[in-house]
Amino acid sequence: MSTEAQGLFSSSVLPWQRASFAHCLAMHSANRLPHALMLAGPNGCGKQVFAATLASVLLCKNGTDNELEAMPCGSCDGCSLLQAGSHGDICWLAPEEGKRAIGVEPVRDAIRFVQQTAGYGAYKVLVISPAEAMTTAAANALLKTLEEPAGNSFICLVCHRPNDLPATVRSRCQTIAFPAPGSEEGLSWLQQAMPDSDGASLALELADGRPIEALRLATTGALDELASIRQTLSGLVHQTHTATTAAQLLGSADLDTILAVAAAVLETTLKDPLSLDNPGRYRQLFCLRDDICQWASSARRGVNLARDGLVAHLCNRLFTSGRSSSVTLWQTIGWDLDKKGSMAMSEGTRQGILSVTIQDKALLYSSYMPFLENGGLFVVTDRHYRIGDEVFMLLSLMDESEKFPLPAA
Question: DSSP readout, 47-99?
Answer without folding.
Answer: HHHHHHHHHHHHH-TTTTTS-TT----SSSHHHHHHHHT--TTEEEE-PPTT-
